[in-house]
Specification:
Strand content: 15-25%
Shape: extended
Structural class: alpha+beta
Number of helices: 22
Helix content: 40-55%
Strand order of the largest sheet: 15-3-17-16
Largest sheet: 4 strands, antiparallel
């Protein structure tokens, strides 16, 4: 009871304490949920039709496409531009999957497993499959056997880590193209359906056929718009504003930025040149006399010595004449040469022999060497075991172990090299004609900026930033330092790079986060340090009137010139009078009909073409406002063919014309109408 009394006595205080505790609990829960909410922006690269795209899913797709690029190009070093292209391709693929997928599902359309199998491995695979270099022979033709063998290898199990990794890469490669076929086939089915709905009908066909049946020949006079001086025409701001309002929907834009920037070239200093010259002078005596040239060259030179066989076409150009000069012998050494910022000296190691430039090889993997005799018999009998593919290769395309045996061996012979726990058997199918070869050791180094030079150049660029914090100061300092100021416009949040600057995606990211007038820090873009200033921020839904004012003014100017010229020519009673008034010659346009794309030599003039066809023979037209000027026409002949229109043929032609543009237009329309949020710029 005493405890209850104490509670009653301190009831108000306790209520306050409990209330604060509950508030803290509620706020804590809200902050946690809020943290989760804000953390979402770190997890999702975007949203397509209400579905979040998780960063991990996007990364997995990027890695998959990256592997595809590596396999198809043979490159492992993908530059920034190619990585940006991969990024964009993955996003577009995801957008298509979600938008087209939703439309197809609503129409009850899908790609069945049987359809997919037929399009991937059936008698007539989809062109996505047949165009893959992996499944083509030396002539560039699709090789079905290569596809079958590739697919058979996907299910192999291997305890060899290298081979297991190759199988995994092959599986990734196939999954990507299988999905690409599925999506492309779905798109083709969907657009085929649309083609049936929006294709040409009989009325279209008849109208198109009849449009070509009336042909006219006309004479005409054209007075160009530029004949009216600008100074005679006044254009008010209100006229520009009115036209802008009328055309505003044509000026929709994505948020974008404009910048100015200066570049500080990262180039070697005079001391860097002296240092490399000193380096090669110190090593040249040892290079000339050593018994182990590789020990001198390989730790020091940009070009390693591994006994490579050089031909006249593969040896560095500056040593070609020297190396293949008559009487050249092993041990001869050149003078130190300097060319294109490279110091180099060469030593002849072997000369006076010939080898093929390339060999044609056939290879297969064997579980063990015990199978080799059986394989040799099969190959001699024209049976090629698990592979009938051959390939012409040069020495540099092969590992040294394979190249040495392939180029030294005889045509038709078979050799082996270890492969995992088994062996790789290779047959020399053919060899190109032998040509003179040499072995040359080259001690070479390109002069590049030293760390000291790099630091000095960076500090110069950094000092430019520190000293110039406004656009005005930036521009003035650049002019004083004789630095060229470049501009870049329309940098959207996912723009890959700035103009032709290497590795400049970082500048785009900065520009889309900075404030107008901000000066950037120093960016390293390839062989340049870049400092930029953000000159304009455009976040509006439409391009501002100032951006399109010149375009609007030109349109108004053309219209006013047309009014003047029409008034000037309207009273001409004959074509010759019109020619005299316009100080122009009379020209001829023949075979004009409503399907014509051009009007004589004047180019695209749809209004003039329509007027020409409507004229009766001998009739003089009123002045016509065209694209290039004002025209006066007179029909000299008009012929109409009364032949019956071939409706089926016309429909086929129209549908063929539609088929080129419909898929592109349909997909664009679907994506334009979709709700898409792209946040990739937060991550890449």
């Amino acid at each position: 009871m005493a405890s209850l009394q104490k509670i009653r006595e301190h009831g108000v205080l306790l209520l306050i304490i409990v209330g604060l505790a509950m508030l803290a609990f509620i706020l804590g829960d809200f902050m946690n949920s809020g943290a989760s909410f804000f953390h979402r922006s770190e997890q999702y690269v975007g949203e397509i039709e209400g579905e979040d795209i998780h960063i991990q899913d996007f990364e997995n797709a990027r890695e998959q496409l990256t592997e595809v690029y590596k396999i198809e190009t043979g490159r492992n070093d993908l530059d920034e531009e190619l990585q940006s292209n991969i990024n964009n391709q993955v996003w577009q693929l995801m957008v298509m999957q979600h938008t087209l997928g939703a439309q197809a599902e609503a129409a009850g359309m899908t790609v069945t497993d049987d359809e997919l199998a037929d399009k991937c491995i059936g008698e007539h695979p989809h062109q996505i499959i047949t165009q893959r270099p992996t499944f083509r022979d030396q002539s560039g033709q699709f090789n079905r056997l290569a596809l079958v063998q590739f697919l058979a290898g996907l299910d192999q199990a291997s305890h060899d880590p290298e081979q297991a990794q190759q199988i995994k890469q092959a599986q990734t490669y196939w999954m990507y193209w299988e999905n690409a076929v599925r999506l492309t086939w779905l798109q083709e089915k969907y657009t085929d359906l649309l083609q049936e709905l929006v294709g040409a009908n009989k009325l279209d066909a008849e109208q198109n056929g009849k449009a070509a049946q009336t042909n006219v020949n006309v004479q005409y006079v054209m007075q160009p718009y530029f004949s009216v001086p600008d100074s005679t025409i006044k254009i008010s701001n209100s006229e520009i504003r009115d036209l802008y309002k009328k055309k505003k929907e044509q000026y929709k834009q994505e948020p974008n930025r404009s910048i100015k920037y200066v570049a500080f070239d990262i180039e070697p200093s005079e001391q860097d040149f002296k240092d490399v010259e000193t380096w090669i002078n110190k090593l040249q005596d040892e290079f000339k006399t050593t018994n182990d040239v590789a020990e001198v060259v390989n730790p020091n030179s940009d070009i390693i010595y591994n006994g490579q066989n050089y031909s006249e076409s593969t040896i560095p150009a500056q040593f070609k004449d020297w190396a293949f000069q008559k009487g050249r012998k092993a041990g001869d050494v050149t003078e130190i040469l300097f060319e294109n910022n490279i110091y180099a000296i060469a030593r002849m190691m072997q000369t006076g022999y010939t080898l093929s430039d390339s060999v044609e090889l056939r290879g297969t993997i064997l579980a063990s060497a015990d199978q080799l005799d059986s394989l040799k018999n099969e190959w001699k009998q024209g049976k090629f075991g698990t592979s009938e593919d051959t390939q012409w290769v040069t020495e540099t395309m092969l590992s040294k172990e394979i190249a040495d045996k392939a180029f030294a061996g005889q045509k038709g012979s078979i050799f082996t090299v270890p492969y995992g726990t088994g062996v790789q058997a290779i047959q020399i199918v053919d060899k190109s004609a032998a040509t003179p070869k040499v072995k040359v050791a080259i001690l070479s180094r390109e002069v590049s900026p030293s760390s000291k030079t790099y630091a000095t150049l960076y500090n110069n660029a950094k000092q430019f930033v520190v000293s110039n914090k406004t656009e005005e100061a930036f521009t003035a300092a650049a002019e004083e330092a004789n630095l060229e100021v470049e501009t870049a416009y329309n940098l959207q949040k996912n723009t890959n790079k700035v103009n032709d600057l290497q590795q400049s995606r970082q500048i785009v990211r900065w520009a889309n986060k900075a404030k107008e007038g901000d000066v950037s820090d120093v960016f390293e873009c390839g062989e340049k340090f870049i400092v930029a200033v953000l000159t304009e921020v455009k976040d509006g839904e439409y391009r501002p009137i100032n951006d399109v004012q010149a375009e609007l003014r030109m349109e108004i100017l053309r219209d006013k010139r047309a009014e003047i010229l029409i008034k000037k020519l309207k009273d001409a009673a004959t074509l010759q009078e019109a020619a005299d008034i316009a100080s122009a010659e009379i020209k001829t346009a023949e075979g004009v009909n409503l399907n014509s794309y051009r009007f004589g030599d004047a180019g695209m003039e749809p209004a003039v073409i329509g007027t020409a066809v409507s004229l009766n023979e001998g009739e003089l037209s009123a002045p016509v406002k065209g694209m290039q000027g004002v025209y006066v026409l007179q029909s000299t002949s008009k012929k109409t063919t009364e032949a019956e229109v071939n409706v089926e043929q016309e429909m086929q032609q129209l549908n063929m014309r539609y088929s080129y543009s419909l898929p592109y237009q349909a997909l664009n329309l679907i994506q334009d109408k979709a709700e898409i949020t792209d946040n990739r710029s937060n991550f890449y």
